[in-house]
Each structure stands twice: as C-alpha cells, then as structure tokens.
Automatic annotation (TrEMBL), chain A:
This is ABC transporter permease. Keywords: Cell membrane, Membrane, Transmembrane, Transmembrane helix, Transport. One of its GO terms (biological process) is transmembrane transport. The lineage of its organism: Archaea, Methanobacteriati, Methanobacteriota, Stenosarchaea group, Halobacteria. InterPro entries: Bact_Polyamine_Transport (IPR051789), MetI-like (IPR000515), MetI-like_sf (IPR035906). It is found in: Cell membrane. CDD domains: TM_PBP2.
From TrEMBL, chain B:
It comes from Halorussus limi. This is ABC transporter permease. Coiled coil: none annotated. It comes from the Archaea. It holds the Pfam family BPD_transp_1. InterPro entries: MetI-like, MetI-like_sf. One of its GO terms (biological process) is transmembrane transport. The keyword Cell membrane applies. SUPFAM superfamilies: MetI-like. Residues 123-330 form the ABC transmembrane type-1 domain.
Length: 282, 339
C-alpha cells in the first residue's frame, strides 16, 4: 500500500487515508448516535433536579420538586394524586390486556404454526395489520364502532382496544419462538408415554416460556405506553400517557420534569433488569 | 400428530361416536386455538375499520351531523379530498404532478394552471416527511449498525444492541417531551449551538419542521438500526476478502458485495421507519407548529374540532392506502416476511 501510494493523486491518497481511519470514523459516528439517543433523557433527568421554576438553564441542584410531589403537593399544575390515579388506571388496563392477549396470542401462534388452511396468507396479513396501520386510524375506527353499538367509553373500552393490537404483538413473538422449536421433542415425550396435556405442560410450555415472557413484556409496554388509541376510546378517564400529554401541552415545568424522570427511570430500570435475566428481548 | 390421530381412529373397530370424532379431529384444536383471537380481531379491528370505510362515503349534514343512510352515500368525500373544485379528475392528476415537479425542480416555472387540494398537498407533504425521516435514519443508522455488527469488539455487541433498544421501551411521550426540552430556547443544546452560522444562540428550534424531523428520527431510528444489524450480522465477510483478493478496493467491495447483501435489512428498516413516520400524529402535534402538521393531525382534527367525520374517514383510508402501497412495494422488492 505505502509504496504504491506515492504516485497516486491527492484525492486517492485522501481516500485511502479515510479507509485507514474508517473504523474510527464509524466508531465516532456510532458514539454520536448513542449521544443523540441518550442526551435528551439525561438532560431531562438532570433538569428534574434543577433549582428553578421556569428556566431551562441550570440554576443549582435541588430535590425540592421530588419532595413536594412525594408529599402530595401540586407542583406547577402537576397534581400528584391525579398522576397516581392515572398510573393505577394504566396498570389495570395493562394487566388485563397482557393476560388476555398472552392467552389468545399464544393460542393463535399455535394455530398459525401447526395448521395449514385455505386463506392462511390473508389471515396472517390481518393478524399483522394492527401493528402496521397508523394508531390514529385504529383509535378513531374503534371510537366510531363503540359509538354505533352504544358502548359507554371507559377503562373497559380502552382495554378492548389494547387487546386488539397486543394479540398481534404476542402472536408474532411467540410464533417466532415456535418456528425455531424442535417438534421431535414433543414426539419423543409422547413416545415415552406422556399424554397431550403432559407433553404441553412439561415440554412445549417450558420451551416457549422465553417467547411468552418476551411477548407479555412487549404487550405490557405497548399497552402501558399507548397514547393515541387510548386517547380516542377512553372517554373522560385518564391513563398515565394521557395525563402526561395534557401536562406537556401546558409547557415545560419542574413538576412535569419529575414525573417524566420517574417514568423513564422506572420503565428503563424494569426492562434493563428483565434483559439482564432473559437476554436481549425482541 | 395428525397421522397418529388417524391411525388411532382406524384401530377403533366399532367406529367412534360423533363427540369422540369431534374431539379427535385434527381441526378441533385449530378451531379452539384460533377462535378467540379471530373473534376479537374481527369484532374489534376489522368491523371498526369497515365502519370507518363506510363512513368515508357519507356526508356531513348542515349541523355537523353524519349522514350515512344509503341515499347519501357516494364518493363525494374522496372527490373533495383529491379533486379541486371546478376541476376534472384529469386536471387534478396533472395539477398534482405539476405541483410535485415545481417542488422538486428549483425553478420558478408554473407548470399547471391550478394547485391540488390542500388535502392532497398535506398528504404529499406527509409522505415527504416520511421519506426524509427514512432517508436520515438510513444515513445515520446504517453506519451504526455496521459498526455494531462488524467492527465493535464481540463482547460489547450485545450491550451496544441493548443500548439501542432500551430507549424504545421508555415512554414515547416522555421522550418527545425530552426532545421538546432540548429544542426549546435557552436550553443546553440551543445555547451550545451558538457557533453555527445563521443561528443565534439560545433561539428556539421548536414548532418547526426541523423539530418534527428530529422527533421522527429520534423515535424511529432504532427500527432502522436493528434490521440492518440483523442483516449485516448474517453476512459472510470472507466474501469481502474474496472481492478484495480479486482486485476490488475496500469501497468497491462494500458497494458491490456487502451493501447488496445487507439490503433486506435496509428495506425492512425503511418500511418500519416510513410507515409510522408518515402516519405520525403525536410528534407533529407536540413538536411542530401550524406549518408542520401532518395528515394524522388532519384526521384527528376532522374527528374533533373541525367536525367532518366522513372527510376524516376518507383521509384515514387515503393514509391506509399509502401504507398498503408501501407494504406491497416491500413485498415485491424486499424479502417475504415483515418485522
């Protein structure tokens, strides 16, 4: 390389220089992207400790906002008890959604994995659709539907909508696991005298467990975090994202910063721990 | 499983009763497994979409009520959406093409006598946002995927991947709020950017098309990086060495061998970024100004303040049409499976 480079054009030399440093350049670019991903989160958490009521500029460290909110005081229109009841609603909806969609989705994954039937392609397409279509279309179409059948809106309609899209997420995750699954193990269990139920209980289910756990976690996150679909079909009830949205609309305040920082730390902590135990999820 | 059942059935001499036959039928298990989800998806997904589709052919009454009785049905909303008043369908198509050309070609030429409807302009603008977000995510994300999949030390790869996925799990709204903080006037970032020409330190970057684009890329870039990483991870890099042994330089080896092999990931990632970006509602709502609203905001407005449900439904199905087109293109040119 070095002997040949003497009589090459400056441009070619520059180019080979870039290649020489290519790995480093890529590392720098990657580092910038990681910075881009985490800088907003870090700044947000830092500002929740900022000793200033309005400014975005650092004025000194304080835990005043946390203390006030934890003591139940309202900080800049953020009412902690309203936030807490919204959180409870979110958790309730998410739990119902996870149970229903994990059971239904796992069953559906079995059906898709083990049976061929006419129209399977179309049916699979429909199963994928709730993930793909814009949430706003899904939310509004459900709103129209509930209006027409005369269902009053509330937590139950929100859960119905969440189950409708979470079935798809669970199905896809469990199906991926099922397709990598060595079916001869089930046959071996049956040859050794296990009946269908025993085979399922002691062979199939344990093998599927990581897929089901991942599916459940994904379903929980999707339900817990959903704003758009919920917004249209929950009536005048609140979930945490909807509560948070109405706060954000009113501007950047220390109270919102604290709620946001808490949400981020808790969700990322939970998922981080889950990944630690289960390996990378999804 | 199936063959076993059949052989057992044959062993029974007297023939099983109907109940036993149903119990043992291969399709009983299928029916049991498929029914709950199929029911749910039919009643709470397909039927609502059907209702919305039906509404898109309705009319708005004089007092904002929705008229969907058969005698009101027609294509009037789609006509209102796509065809300017007093224009023919042919003119509408030509005006739309001309409008796009005028936007792309940097001249002051006026190609057509009229403009497409504001709705079409908004739709095309949303597609433009989606494409630009996809392009930026690709340009910024591909090198990261390449770095993580190929150059980073093996023992850090899992960690680097987890670090890309982790923000995805943190609340969507909270992350948008965090972007809002950074782009606001007098924030850490806007103050630090003072060295840029044409930019006064501390000036707010919020409520602009730029802010919307930052938000879209910030939220969806992991969906570009992950599939590309998965593709790069599978490539046999001895092919690169082979290409270089045959006289290619590093750039040629990348362009002619490695990049084409990573295309399935690029195509999948592009779809995963394009679709949610084009249909975005919250991001333009919170980060954009009046000038940078997208078709999702238009749909929401029709079902809310503007109160024209049939027009909103027609807008929704236009948006759905764009998504289906993108997926159809993907299935034609990309690999067979999604996600």
């Amino acid at each position: 390389m070095s002997t040949g480079s003497r009589n090459r054009s400056p441009f070619a030399r520059l180019r080979s220089r870039i290649f020489e440093w290519g790995g480093t350049l890529l590392a720098v670019e990657a580092a910038l992207v990681y910075l881009f991903l985490y800088l907003p989160i870090v700044v947000l958490i830092a500002l929740s400790f900022n000793d200033s009521r309005y400014a975005l500029v650092w004025q000194g460290f304080t835990t005043e906002w946390y203390e006030a909110l934890l003591a139940g005081e309202t900080v800049a229109r953020v009412n902690p008890s309203a936030a807490f009841s919204a959180l409870v609603h979110s958790v309730e909806i998410a739990l119902v959604t996870v149970v229903a969609s994990v059971v239904f989705g796992t069953m559906l994954a079995f059906a898709l994995d083990r049976y061929d039937f006419p129209g399977k392609g179309l049916f699979t397409g429909i199963v994928y659709m709730p993930i793909i279509i814009p949430s706003i279309v899904m939310g509004i179409s459900l709103l129209l539907f509930f209006n027409i059948v005369g269902m009053s809106l509330g937590l139950h309609t929100a859960a119905i909508g969440h189950i409708a899209f979470d079935i798809s997420f669970v199905t896809i995750v469990v199906l991926a696991r099922l397709q990598r699954f060595d079916r001869t193990l089930e046959e071996a269990a049956k040859d050794l005298g296990a009946n269908e139920l025993e085979t399922f209980r002691y062979v199939t289910l344990p093998m599927l467990k990581p897929g089901i756990v991942a599916g459940a976690l994904l379903a929980f996150a999707m339900s817990f975090d959903d704003f758009v679909v919920t917004f249209f079909i929950i009536g005048n009830q609140n979930t945490l994202p909807i509560f948070f949205f109405s706060m954000v609309r009113q501007g950047i305040t220390p109270g919102v910063n604290v709620v946001a920082a808490l949400i981020i730390v808790v969700t990322m902590g939970v998922v981080g721990i889950a990944q630690w135990f289960e390996g990378p999820i999804w | 499983m199936a063959s076993e059942h059949k052989s057992r059935e044959r062993d029974v001499e007297s023939g099983p009763s109907l109940r036993q036959r149903i119990r043992r039928s291969r399709w009983t298990g299928f029916a049991v497994n498929v029914t709950p989800s199929a029911f749910w998806l039919f009643v709470f997904f397909l039927v609502p979409l059907g209702v919305m589709f039906y509404y898109s052919f309705g009319q708005r009454g004089a007092f904002g009520e929705v008229l969907v009785a058969p005698k009101y049905l027609g294509l009037q909303q789609y006509r209102l959406f796509f065809v300017p008043e007093d224009a023919s369908v042919f003119q509408a198509i030509w005006w739309t093409v001309a409008w796009l050309l005028e936007a792309i070609v940097p001249t002051n030429l006026q190609f057509a006598a009229g403009e497409p409807t504001p709705y079409v302009q908004l739709t095309l603008k949303s597609i433009g946002y989606g494409l630009l977000a996809t392009l930026v995510s690709f340009a910024v994300g591909y090198p990261v995927a390449y770095y993580v999949g190929r150059i980073a030390p093996e023992e850090y790869q899992d960690l680097l991947l987890v670090l890309i996925i982790l923000p995805f799990w943190a609340s969507f709204l909270v992350r948008i709020y965090a972007i809002q903080i950074l782009l606001s006037g007098n924030s850490v970032l806007t103050n630090a950017l003072g060295f840029l020409p044409f930019y006064e330190a501390g000036q707010s970057l919020m409520n602009s098309q730029f802010a919307v684009m930052v938000g879209l890329v910030y939220i969806w870039i992991p969906f570009m990086i992950l599939p590309v990483y998965a593709s790069i991870e599978e490539i046999d890099f001895t092919l690169q060495e082979a290409a270089m042994d045959l006289g290619a330089n590093k750039l040629q080896a990348f362009r002619k061998v490695i990049f084409p092999l990573s295309m399935p990931g690029v195509v999948a990632g592009s779809l995963l970024v394009f679709i949610p970006s084009t249909g975005a509602y919250v991001i333009p709502d919170l980060l954009g100004g009046t000038n940078s609203q997208m078709i999702g905001n238009f749909i929401a407005a029709q079902f809310g303040a503007a109160g024209n449900w049939p027009l909103g439904a027609a807008g929704s199905f236009t948006l759905m049409g764009i998504m289906l087109l993108a997926i159809a293109l993907y299935q034609k040119y990309g690999s067979a499976d999604i996600a």
